[in-house]
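This entry is passed on directly below:
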Amino acid sequence: MLFGGRCASCHGLDGRTPTEVGQWMYPRAPDVGSPAVQQWSDAELFWIIKHGIRLTGMPGFGHIHSDDQVWHLVRYVRSLGAQPKQ
């Protein structure tokens, strides 16, 4: 799975519990199932995953993943918003 290969190193394997690395970033790596992340549109999530966020620890993955793979990650992030945090 794409999330486990790249994203989990900061956002945690479950996407909801940032790792120690993610917790020490500024700004911190968010729980991607949180209301703050889930409020973003699919297009915004796509752009963030593809291009990253300048001056933060969030890199862009468009240079290593196809648009289809990035959309797959957007759908995965959306699925985490539907699950309660454990």
